[in-house]
């Protein structure tokens, strides 16, 4: 039987701090997705999260810190959900990967990418974040699809699938094209099945 340490006074404060941080991250992603970079200030995010601007700046000293952390946080949450998908048929995997690029996270990330293309201090952070998220998504896709990347063309097929999913996400920003997307997903699932068989 181990020694039980009594709870400290710091635990509740640490819990509050973690909850505040999470609320700020979720509010930042929602703001980016809804109003874009220009409308997403630290003050707007703090108000949406129900915390003071000072509390927001305690957790995230700069606007860039807040928004890159927010996109990274939600990307990790989404990656975790993908990692937990059971092995299933490839059409369901293709559909799940496409869903990754058609939701609010993708919309928020896209606003961040556009801002980074014009803001020197943001560009390296977003480029690094996108590379990290892209590598992780590729790894997860390979595992879920049961793909053997030592075979010719398999790596390119998986990357093509992710690029196609990103393109569908871009199209979804302007119009909800769910019926066409469903047909494209079915076609890509057939191509993936044929290539990976």
From TrEMBL:
Coiled-coil ranges (or none): none
Organism: Streptomyces xantholiticus
Domain HTH tetR-type: 18-78
Organism placement in taxonomy: Bacteria, Bacillati, Actinomycetota, Actinomycetes, Kitasatosporales
Chain residues forming the annotated DNA-binding region: 41-60
A Pfam family this chain is assigned to: TetR_N
Record's keyword terms, sorted: DNA-binding
SUPFAM superfamilies on file: Homeodomain-like (SSF46689)
Keyword Lipid metabolism tagged: no
PANTHER family (UniProt xref): HTH-TYPE TRANSCRIPTIONAL REGULATOR PKSA (PTHR30055:SF226), HTH-TYPE TRANSCRIPTIONAL REGULATOR RUTR (PTHR30055)
Keyword Hydrolase: no
Protein name as it appears in the record: TetR/AcrR family transcriptional regulator
InterPro entries documented for this protein: Homeodomain-like_sf, HTH-type_TetR-like_transc_reg, HTH_TetR
